[in-house]
Design brief:
about 475 residues; alpha/beta; L-fucose Isomerase, Chain A, domain 3; disordered N terminus
């Protein structure tokens, strides 16, 4: 008989307190506590240059916001606020009164990474002139000032398939999150994913490089096994001891098995450090079942994701780039799953044998976890993470081959205790479970879940990429 655990529940205060370090990943250090220290995974140190274009007509003309409005004062105020809120972005302010002004800026801006068009007045024609160039462009509506031109220009730009995102919100953090998408795109262009597999390269790897600029480096099983043999066994034992000490329960795996997972983690981390990679995915099931992998990487992925890097299951490059993109964008780890849909309860259950225990990022609170064996074959060591309930999660997947992103949102309600299927099973309620049944043939079984109401930043970065956003439920 299946039961559910509503435990653990983070209070709203504790949950929000953990968000303080989440907007960006400042470093990839080992988790707090007794965990050992080793080589760190490098974080790209890049700073995008963004042309900040304020659009409005001359103040003596009657229009929104009103005749005689202090545009210069508003520009100074917004520029200072953007620089304070987004220190990782270099802003280059300018003003465009008309479409010709916008086109002149384009001619002089060969080196900028994108455009932030802040509409503090209306009917200049400059936003569409800039967007038409096909460069990543963010439209921001200064409420009660740029509304008419924002609404018409944004709708037209998206219908034309231009690389345009939009923010029309009274919440300043929505602007900040959208601007950080420029940082994310710049970091992706400076990042490397290690793909541990014996399979030949597929179209997804090529598309990731073409669309995001991210390098995908194929690593054969012989190479990770060589790194495993060279891994410092004393450090591996320290990691195993730290994981055991931190676990609420250790069920099936022996200490020896957990130490093998520690050696696999050290091997993966050393490969990443040597190749300056920010993410790793391992074709774990095929390699382990084929006798080509001495230990499952599950606990290593658990550690990497808690620390702000990316460890992704099953050689799934599409999930890996989704995790890396969202970790840069939000500072939070993703959780790959094979979902189960229960229409009777209006629930989707995110099931997998790897999940983080710091769902708000490296500096956030840790939720309890159990160390279990891998569910399908009852071997190795894996994780059952008991994640916070009563919270909104955003589940998605970016498809670079199709230039689309699929997403849905739900509220977590329970950690399901069921021996069948994967170890971690996070149940969440959705508004329309039947709508969730419509996209799996096109997208496959996997989805990646992140804590938080993240639709706005997802829509923003999708717009800057020129991706279509598909809401599946």
């Amino acid at each position: 008989m299946s039961t559910t655990h509503a435990w653990p529940v983070l209070s709203r205060r504790a949950f929000l307190a953990g968000c303080a370090g989440c907007p960006a990943v400042a470093a990839c250090s080992a988790s707090a506590g007794a965990s050992p220290q080793g080589p760190t995974v490098p974080v790209p140190e890049v700073k995008p240059r963004i042309r900040l274009v304020f659009t409005h007509i001359p103040p003596e003309k009657p229009t929104w916001p009103y005749q005689g409005y202090d545009y210069e004062g508003r520009k100074k105020e917004l520029t200072a606020r953007l620089r304070q809120s987004c220190p990782g972005v270099e802003f280059l302010p300018a003003t465009a009164h008309n479409a010709d002004d916008g086109r002149k800026l384009l001619e002089a801006d060969a080196e900028v990474d994108g455009y932030l068009v802040y509409m503090i007045g209306i009917w200049t024609g400059a936003p569409m002139a800039i967007a038409a160039a096909g460069r990543p462009t963010l439209f921001v509506n200064d409420l009660y000032a740029g509304c008419g031109e924002f609404l018409t220009a944004y709708a037209r730009a998206r219908r034309q398939g231009l690389k345009v995102a939009g923010v029309t919100s009274s919440r300043w953090d929505d602007v900040v999150q959208a601007v950080r998408a420029f940082e994310t795109l710049k970091k992706l262009r400076a990042s490397t994913i290690l793909d541990v597999t014996d399979r030949p390269p597929g179209p997804v790897a090529q598309a990731i490089t073409e669309v995001f600029g991210t390098t995908v480096e194929r690593i054969p099983s012989e190479e990770i096994n060589a790194a495993y043999q060279k891994a410092d066994r004393s450090e591996a034992r320290k990691w195993a001891a730290a994981w055991i000490k931190g676990a609420a329960r250790v069920v099936e795996p022996s200490r020896e098995e957990i130490e093998k997972s520690g050696a696999m983690y050290v091997a993966m981390r050393d490969l990443m450090a040597a190749r300056k990679a920010q993410a790793i995915t391992v074709d774990c099931l095929n390699l382990f079942y084929g006798g080509k992998l001495p230990a499952y990487p599950c606990l290593g992925f658990f550690q990497l994701n808690d620390d702000g890097s990316v460890g992704a299951c099953e050689g799934d490059l599409q999930s890996t780039i989704t995790m890396l993109l969202m970790t840069y964008l939000t500072g939070r780890p993703g959780y790959i799953s094979d979902p189960v849909v229960d229409t009777a309860k209006k629930q989707i259950i995110y099931a997998h044998c790897v999940a983080p225990s710091k769902v708000l990022g490296p500096s956030g609170p840790r939720n309890p976890y159990h160390i279990r064996d891998h569910s399908e074959d009852r071997k190795g060591a894996a994780v059952r993470s008991l994640m916070p309930v009563g919270q909104i999660v955003t589940t998605l997947m970016f498809a670079p081959t199709r230039k689309q992103v699929v997403l849905h949102q739900a509220r977590t309600v329970a950690n399901v205790d069921e021996d069948k299927a994967c170890r971690t099973k996070l149940a969440a309620e959705v508004q329309d479970p039947w709508k969730l049944l419509s996209e799996w043939d096109r997208w496959g079984w996997h989805r990646v879940t992140f804590y938080g109401d993240l639709r706005q930043p997802v829509e923003a970065i999708a717009g800057l990429l020129g991706f279509e956003a598909i809401v599946e439920g």
